[in-house]
Structure to design on (79 residues):
């Protein structure tokens, strides 16, 4: 984490039912570590009921559109 540039935009996507992060506990630790390391632009998006592969869930169109919107907003801020 120390090697990540502080101003690098980071977008974390997860489903609330993803078994990998223990119902959000691991995800909260990751996000806390990013913020404690001084990363300035960390955005999280959690999808209720989603599991591990959010780009393969039944609401993938929403997930992809949210990512596109975040990318567009990030690019607009960086210009």
């Amino acid at each position: 984490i120390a090697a990540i540039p502080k101003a690098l935009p980071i977008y974390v996507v997860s489903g609330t039912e993803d078994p990998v992060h223990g119902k959000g506990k691991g995800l909260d630790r990751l996000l806390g570590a990013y913020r404690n390391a001084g990363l300035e632009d960390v955005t999280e998006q959690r999808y209720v009921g989603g599991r591990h592969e959010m780009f393969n869930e039944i609401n993938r169109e929403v997930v992809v559109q949210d990512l596109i919107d975040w990318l567009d907003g990030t690019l607009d801020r960086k210009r």
About this structure: Strands lie at 10-15, 42-47. DSSP finds two helices and two strands in the chain.
